[in-house]
Write a structure and sequence with these properties.
The chain is mostly helical. Helix content is 62%, strand content 0%. It has 10 helices and no strands. The protein has helices spanning 3-13, 17-29, 33-42, 68-79, 83-95, 103-116, 122-132, 140-151, 156-168, 177-186. The longest helix is centred in the middle third of the chain and has 14 residues, at 103-116. It starts with a helix and ends in a 6-residue tail after the last helix.
Length: 192
């Protein structure tokens, strides 16, 4: 991390947000992807407060109030190789907010972030794309592969997706009550 970034973090920690933004901007202009992430987090007052929407297609981990300014910062960070930023950009394209919905773009961002391999949220979204044919052909085996990768790293929505897939079956994936129950209990939801 650059000196500008470190100083900006110290300013932010001490409550001097406006001055911190100026130093984050300098660090970002110097090619610091994490500075773009911080600018995105500071773009709206609610940034950092996460909400979870466990509908079938939208497990959302974006800050409330997500809008165009945040998206632009995430896009810049993703262009510099920041994998979580790639995931956030992919989610924006998947949801159609604040950009037009584009499943092909979403799939490409999730695939790139997964390929880089240091963010276990990325394979979850890639698995969703494969399971639901979003931006790609349906491939239930790939969906199970990526959900399993996430489940092994503690991703509860991935565990629940696997429990559902093994309970109902999906394409060539046969029903397996034992696996379904195991993933359900792994998620912690099946415990008292």
């Amino acid at each position: 991390m650059s000196r500008e970034f470190d100083y900006a973090m110290e300013l932010k920690k001490n409550g001097n947000v406006e001055e911190a933004k100026a130093y984050f901007e300098k660090a970002a202009q110097g090619g610091e992807p994490e500075a773009y992430m911080e600018l995105a987090r500071l773009a709206v007052p609610e940034a950092g407060e996460h909400y979870y929407n466990y509908s079938k297609l939208d497990v959302t981990l974006l800050p409330q109030g997500y809008h165009k300014t945040e998206f632009e910062y995430y896009l810049k960070a993703s262009e510099l190789g920041h994998t979580r930023a790639m995931v956030y950009v992919g989610i924006a394209y998947k949801q159609g907010y604040p950009v037009n919905r584009d499943y092909d773009m979403a799939f490409n961002y999730f695939a790139k972030a997964t390929e880089l391999g240091d963010d276990y949220l990325a394979p979850y979204y890639l698995a969703e794309c494969y399971e639901n044919a979003l931006g790609t052909e349906m491939d239930e085996n790939a969906a199970v592969l990526y959900y399993t990768m996430c489940a092994e790293h503690g991703n509860i929505p991935a565990m629940l997706a696997l429990a559902r897939i093994y309970k109902e079956g999906l394409g060539s994936i046969e029903k397996d009550e034992q696996k379904s129950t195991r993933y359900f209990f792994m998620s912690g939801i099946g415990r008292n």
